[in-house]
Structures are given as structure tokens and as C-alpha cells.
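Please describe our next protein:
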Amino acid sequence: MGSFVKRSKNPMTQTSTPKSMEEISTKVMRTRKEIELFKIMAIISLNMGNLNMEVNNPKKKLATREKKKAIL
């Protein structure tokens, strides 16, 4: 029975599972945060691209009108 008590105090048998589970859960949470940030950045990028297109279209139309007036 004495050898069983010595084995149960082995740090690898008792603490490795909770520590590895903690590490895994930390990695999963970090990955989820990274995914959420990526989604947010993609949405912002698309919105900025759409805004840029909305701003550029009237500028192009105005420039085209001015060129037509200059030709006439």
C-alpha cells in the first residue's frame, strides 16, 4: 500500500489532466476570440469598401458631366 501512496503523489498523474484541460480551454477561447475579431474586421472592411464605392460613384458622375460640358 505504501507504493500506491507514493504513485498517487506523482504530479503527472494528478495535475496533468486539469492543466492540459486548462490549456486546451484557453486555446479554444483564444481561437474563438480570434475568429470573432476576424469576422468583425471582414464586416468592417466590406462596409468601408461599400462606403468608398458610394463616395466614388458621385465623384465619377460629376467628373463625367464636367468632361461632357467641356467637350460641348
About this structure: Residues 2-71 form one domain. The chain has one domain: 2-71. The two ends are 106 Å apart (CA to CA).
